[in-house]
Amino acid sequence: MSAFTSVIPQVRHVLTHGRWFTPSLFVLFLGLEMFGRRATSDVHDTVGAVVLMMIVAGISIRHRVNQISWVKSLGRLVWRVARFGDRFKVDVGPDLRGTPPLPRRLPAAFYGVIFLLLLWTGIATLVWCYSPEGWRPHLAQVTYSGYLALMSILWGLLFVASLGGVYFPIMLLTRLAHGGRPGDLKISRGQLVFLAAYLTLTTAAAWMLPLWPILAFAGFCWFSIFALNLIPDRPGTAQLIWRSAKMRKVRSIPMRRLLLAVTTVFIALLSALIMSAAGGRVFDHPEAENTMPLTTVMGNWLGWLTPGLLLSAAVFVLLGWRNDPARVGWPTAHIADVSESERKHIARDLRHKGWVAHFDEAEADDVRIKLVHADLSQAHEFDPTWPLPVSRDDLKGDLVYDRLSRRSEIQLRRHFLKGLQKIFQEAKGRSSSGGCGYWLAPHLWFVAGLTRDEVAGGEEEPTFLTEVVGPPYTAVFSLPVRRYVYRLLKGLQVDLIFIEDGIGYRKLVKVLRVMFEIYDKGAGKKRSEDIHFQGMTKVRVMFHDFDVDEPFRSNRYPEPKFAPLGRLRVLHVFRDRGGEEEFVEPPFSYDETPAPYLVGV
User: Fold this and answer.
1) Please, what's the largest Cα pairwise distance for the chain?
2) Rounded-to-integer distance, Cα 557 and Cα 498, Å
3) CB 278 within 8 Å of CB 158
4) pLDDT digits (tens, 9 = 90+) for 74-97
5) What is the pTM of this model?
6) Angle at 271 between CA 269 and CA 273, to 5 degrees
7) CA atoms of 258 and 521, how far apart (whole Å)
């Protein structure tokens, strides 16, 4: 032990300050190349990969203490190559308006990535087709060090992809077990049993079954997403807009097109990894000796993890679509005192009017009514009691459904205000915060909760997709409440709400009540303006149509941080600083003297 501790300082001194460092590296790489000539499979290559990483670590340590000239030159070359990729960078932002329509196009970098992945897959397919022993003998004889570098990258990508193939199904199962609510979810004993069974099943399939069905399944998934893009979008749906630094022209990407692009890249990358690692299993050369057994095993396992990965991603997309507040949903009504024989007919009558009937247990957002005799009905009363007593004949008319719609709207507003109170109570105890206020957007499916306009201690340009403050929206708002908020804000032409620090829940409620009044008076089709909120004490409401390169500017009120690119209309709720509104007495005309009518007749 004493000899070991005495050797370590000497090795450290030789590594950091010893002479002949570069020639020693040349000897090490030469020895590594000689080792590669004798290695027969990628099992032996794991030893060579460890030695290569130790050499790279030694170069890094030496360069940090005493800079090496050729390492600096290599670093400058890598930096130039990295700077070459800056021309493919784009500015991305949200487009919540959708009008006027912008030309639709994906960035050129997407097509470049797809071309490289397809080229990679094609080369790997050709190599395994005409070389049953794999591509190791051809590359290792040319440069064993370069071969080890490529293998290390390939093994790392296979490991990360396999980890995702295990993680996503387990995460999906955990979320479904908790009712589809995201958050800090714990894995139960049953889920651990599922994990063990899932790993056993995929391992057995990778060992015994062929690989070509996996590639066919991946192609089927891609064609399904492609067919989904053939369905026309709703007008005014949210989308992304982007602009390259070279062209400076703004283009749009609909969400379905973005889903297709991500799916294409994802499937192309998985196909490239699988064909590079286990392409021999696709062509099935039983008489040939495989010189890459370890890589083939990793590729087979990733291949059979792919169905679970793709299906989990599809279920997550489906859950996101179902929980989208922009998706139209039917209101629900709970009907009490209904016999089993009448439930089917009553449910049909409500369904014809656009309602969903519940009979067993009332939910929080249900409008409650009860079935009574015609003499006891209060469907036409001015101030009825709730649950509303209605008769069988009342459910066939239109008046009762107008009252139910108004009752549902009032309930959803109350639930919305109650959820906001809970969110602001938890956000009030926030110790440290960046920026000057909060973004409020419970009507957007891609916004998880209340967010700051600036990340605390962050230097990047923040957006409303930053860290969540307080509970997520799904924990305090039901889906019908978020759908109503979406209709409310769309009718008022408000895409996002900014709330300055110092505006508490009570002041915000005053603003929201004015918005409710504007929505009711305009029948959901009236655009809200600054003038509608004049006269409110201690609150200043301002609207801004955020367009490309048109941020909010004010000499008196703070500018919230936002993405440099976007199209949306923002409602700002500031603390009133005074000096904007002055009472001007209407002018009086002295040309005519008023006199009573019919005087002197």
Assistant:
1) 129
2) 12
3) no
4) 888 888 877 777 777 888 888 888
5) 0.81
6) 70
7) 38
Match 């980890």 to its residue by tokens: 163
Residue 493, exposed/middle/buried by CB under 10 A (0-12, 13-18, 19+)? middle
Q: Name the token pair of 104.
A: 């639709």
User: CB-based burial of residue 510 (10 Å sphere; 0-12 exposed, 13-18 middle, 19+ buried)?
Assistant: middle
User: Among candidates 62, 61, 36, which has minimal Cα distance to 48?
Assistant: 36
Q: Can you give the residue ranges of every domain in the chain?
A: 2-87, 91-322, 332-397, 426-575
What is the C-alpha to C-alpha distance for residues 72 and 64, in angstroms, rounded to an integer?
Answer: 11
- Helix or strand holding residue 145 (H, E): helix 144-177
Beta bridge partners of 541: 573
Report how far residue 31's alpha carbon sits from residue 284's, in angstroms, rounded to the nearest whole number: 35
37-46 contact pairs (CB < 8 A, 24+): 37/141, 37/144, 39/140, 40/291, 41/136, 41/291, 41/292, 41/293, 41/294, 42/136, 42/151, 42/291, 42/292, 42/293, 42/294, 42/295, 43/293, 43/294, 45/136, 45/140, 45/147, 45/148, 45/151, 46/294
Neighbouring C-beta atoms of residue 180, cutoff 10 Å: 12
How far apart CA 185 and CA 178 sit, in angstroms, is 8
pLDDT for 475-521, tens place per residue?
899 999 999 999 999 999 999 999 988 888 899 999 999 999 999 98
Element at 346 (helix H, strand E): helix 340-352
3-state secondary structure (DSSP) of residue 155? helix
